[in-house]
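Weekly modeling sync, notes
Attendees: S.R. (lead), two postdocs, one rotation student

Agenda item 3: backlog of single-chain predictions. S.R. asked that every request posted to the team notebook include the full sequence so nobody has to chase files. The rotation student volunteered to paste the first one in as an example of the format we agreed on. Action items at the bottom.

Example entry:
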Amino acid sequence: MARRFVISNILGLQVFQVLRFVSFLIISVIFTRIDLTKKDIGDFELLLFLASTVTFFWITGIIQSLLPLFNNNQSFKLRNGKVFQKSPELFNTFLLILFISLLLFAAGWLFKDGIKVYKTGQALPYADGLLWYILLSSPACLIEYIYLLYNKPKHILAYGLISFTLQTLFVIIPVKLGWGIEGGIWGLVIISGIRFLWLLRLIQKYAIIKVSLSFMKEHLYLALPLIISSLLSGSAQYIDGLIVSAQFSPEKFAIFRYGAKEMPLVVTLASGLNNAMLTQFSSMSKMKFGLLTLKKRSLRLMHILFPISILLLFFSDLIYPILFTKNFYQSSDVFMVYVLLITSRLVFPQTILIGLKKNKVVMWTAVFNIIINVGLTFLMIPRYGIVGVAVATVIVYVIEKIILMSYNYFKLGINPNEYIPVGWYLFYSALITVIFVLIDHRIIMLRL
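Predicted structure, as returned to the notebook:
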């Protein structure tokens, strides 16, 4: 009998993330082929960037902390030991996210006229659309995790297909009809409103409408370290965007944003391995098996993702003009540098430290790297322009992993060879770096 293929929650979420990436990729491609200027595209990318910058860290912290609290907390346990079939946790988490979203909306509305962007210091474009997008889209991030908590991976896939198909249409059609980039922005707001209504329906179906300040305190207590960790670990690329938006024109910002994209498979699979392995380092008794498993699984990823990344290096200079027209050929230079982030993504010293609850080491390393990133970026810009911003980011991520590996070795006595397939890693890293240098040199010579 043929083995039945089962869609897991992990697979459902991974496909959901890929669908999100594909939706915005299609929008980006079509925007370059219709009657939009680089400034229009830069303004749209700035809106997405700012919305993500002010929301990614606290949404991540609140949602990640919800997962272990769901049906397992001090506030909603019944005296007989049973738990609610419907979840009061969902309603209170919804209230938390909605409250923070409203605060951001109100603060943005008060100060929007004073926000200046780009090197020209112009007022923030389409501020109203940005604020409504933040208000409606932030709570909607709960939807896929409600399906996850109730073990409905097929619903995650269905929601992703419907939602991101509509998103693509709602953004592109108004622009094609002649309403300009503002029409596309309000199309994004409308689809966010539809997601918000979808969320309200799920809250009605799966949540108990019961306000609990004690649960909110419990939730925030667990979420706060994760919020800080997410802010620090994910800030490097957001700092890049802020620096580019302040130092360059909207046209250059559009070029940078189109190039500053990591390969989705690298981010998705590396993150999945990191999260899945955390429980393997919860005690010293599991350490030896956890290290060996981490080494084997990371090697498996290396054999898959390094060859794909190398192929992208070879063809990115051809792919970008085809996808985004010749106006964005310089984006391929930025993208090629970002491909090199794979050299830091596929080693996992932080997994061991987080599993052992040594979060302060990870946090202070992130603080140090933020300082280095800002300084190095400003040193690189005068000579290399927007490409220098990407180079600084790659260097900083490598430094971060070296620091964490050094801590594991000198403080914990864990040799890198115990959890990293060092031989294969050095081979692939050297190979992709040499190929990058050769391709970059060839491109420079062809453009002279």
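Discussion: group reviewed the output briefly. Strands lie at 116-117, 122-123.
Action items: rotation student to repeat for the remaining queue; S.R. to check formatting next week.
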